[in-house]
């Protein structure tokens, strides 16, 4: 196997690989072996069907799996040998591998550019102390008791705090159903409001209904809604209450505490307080991460590689198009909305690219990495979710470069956590 790397300007990279006919044939036979073991044909013992027979039956699958395996092997060797870290998916050039023939392919992608990483020593975030008041302790205790609570259907009367309701919600603007606002049956718990806290717009509508009734209300289209032309406009809500379940909490007794794994009621209350503190800690941690990520996205005097900016821009548009295509029947309306989102996607792509380049550069300087075993665990989970073989799934993603993009995203997240621990100060 031979490879050649061409490094272009601003992080662009093109990798070309060559496998001899002998190497292709060896891989082809290896891939064909499992097909032979499961193939049954008159005149041949199990596992002994000639390769030519298997090719007539499974040639396309053998070619695809051989191609994936060779691409994965070639790219891995080249990236390791050249010390390259892909930060985008691949653009593929080539034909599928065929037994007895040389195999050539090229992939183009963006890599992390060598350069100075900004000094983050002056970056500082206030480290807030987790706190839990009596209301938060009570909410945590309620949730712990809910683990062994009974549930009874409510046939009459309106929903109350803590009830689990099933409702159908439809949102309209100018009489038209708003894409993404036609939920069908959905379940939600009605949470008690704390002093000074504003109720969700859906909450008062649901609380005003009996089971089987329909009511109306309004909410404001959020600032992150995919269609920019609708943001900030009033949405007319139609809500039908289908069912209500009310929890019957067990009494707060020593027996209840023991059922929940605590030696006493006081120990149970202490455990609820710790749960409330843990929730506060998690909330503060997420707020700090969002704050740090926003600061990195707005980092001045730093430009991300143009290829990474373009990749993030396309990814933003792709996700928007994917979301909108499933919700708009009119191609003209879809085209109009995507045109509105083009400038927004460019700005979003630039910010995401700056953050990723900063964090990956800092991770490389600090020696932070994603272990191969951890990546394989994530890949195995995704393969299981799609009910497919983990090894072939990983090879397929390696061919498109998605596995390397996934690794870069995992490394970015790990670097963000590590940097957060450095910059949070009392």
What does this structure look like?
This protein has 11 helices and 11 strands. The chain folds into 3 domains: 2-110, Trigger factor ribosome-binding domain (Alpha-Beta Plaits), CATH 3.30.70; 134-276, Chitinase A, domain 3; 300-425, Triger factor/SurA peptide-binding fold (Orthogonal Bundle), CATH 1.10.4030. Strands 6, 7, 8, 9 and 10 form a 5-stranded antiparallel sheet that branches. It has a 4-stranded antiparallel sheet with strand order 1-2-4-3. By secondary structure, the protein is of the alpha+beta class.
User: Could you say which structural class the secondary elements and strand pairing correspond to?
Assistant: alpha+beta
Helix content: 40-55%
Q: How large a portion of the residues is in β-strands, by DSSP E?
A: 15-25%
User: What order do the helices and strands follow?
Assistant: EEHHEEEHEEEHEEHHHHHHHE
The poorly predicted ranges are: none
**Might you state the CATH topology name of the largest domain?**
Chitinase A, domain 3
**Tertiary shape:** globular
**Straight-line distance between termini:** 55 Å
Task: Specify the CATH class of the largest domain.
Answer: Alpha Beta
CATH architecture of the largest domain: Roll
Give the overall pLDDT as a whole number: 87
What is the number of E strands? 11
Q: Main β-sheet, in a few words?
A: 5 strands, antiparallel
Number of domains: 3
Radius of gyration: 28 Å
Number of helices: 11
């Amino acid at each position: 196997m031979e490879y050649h790397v061409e490094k272009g300007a601003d992080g662009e990279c093109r990798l070309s690989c060559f496998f001899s006919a002998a190497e292709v044939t060896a891989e082809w036979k290896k891939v064909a072996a499992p097909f032979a073991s499961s193939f049954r044909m008159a005149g041949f013992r199990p596992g002994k069907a000639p390769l030519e027979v298997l090719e007539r039956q499974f040639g396309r699958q053998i070619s695809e799996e051989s191609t994936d395996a060779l691409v994965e092997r070639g790219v891995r060797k080249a990236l390791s040998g050249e010390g390259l870290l892909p930060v985008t998916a691949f653009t593929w050039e080539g034909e599928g591998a065929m037994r007895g023939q040389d195999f050539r392919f090229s992939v183009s992608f963006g890599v992390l550019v060598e350069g100075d990483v900004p000094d983050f020593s002056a970056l500082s975030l206030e480290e807030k102390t987790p706190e839990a008041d009596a209301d938060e302790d009570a909410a945590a205790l309620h949730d712990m008791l809910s683990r062994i609570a009974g549930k009874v259907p409510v046939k009459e009367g309106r929903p109350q705090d803590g009830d689990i309701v099933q409702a159908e919600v439809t949102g309209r603007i100018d009489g038209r159903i708003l894409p993404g606002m036609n939920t069908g049956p959905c379940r939600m718990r009605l949470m008690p409001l704390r002093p000074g806290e504003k109720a969700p717009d859906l909450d008062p509508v649901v609380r005003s209904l009996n089971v089987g009734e329909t009511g109306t209300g309004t909410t404001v289209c959020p600032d992150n809604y995919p269609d920019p032309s609708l943001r900030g406009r009033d949405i007319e809500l139609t809500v039908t209450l289908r069912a209500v379940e009310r929890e019957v909490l067990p009494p707060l007794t020593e027996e209840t505490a023991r059922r929940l794994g605590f030696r006493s009621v006081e120990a149970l209350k202490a455990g609820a307080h710790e749960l409330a503190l843990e929730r506060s800690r998690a909330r503060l941690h997420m707020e700090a991460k969002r704050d740090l990520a926003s600061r990195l996205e707005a980092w001045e005097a730093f430009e991300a590689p143009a290829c990474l900016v373009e990749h993030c821009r396309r990814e933003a548009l792709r996700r928007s198009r994917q979301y909108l295509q499933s919700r708009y029947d009119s191609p003209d309306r879809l085209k109009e909305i995507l045109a509105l989102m083009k400038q927004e996607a460019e700005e979003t792509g630039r910010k995401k690219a700056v953050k990723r380049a900063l964090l990956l550069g800092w991770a490389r300087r600090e020696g932070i990495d994603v272990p191969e075993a951890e990546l394989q665990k994530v890949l195995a989970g995704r393969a299981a979710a799609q009910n497919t073989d983990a090894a072939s799934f990983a090879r397929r993603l390696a061919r498109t470069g998605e596995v390397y993009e996934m690794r870069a995203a995992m490394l970015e997240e790990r670097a963000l956590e590590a940097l957060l621990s450095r910059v949070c100060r009392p």
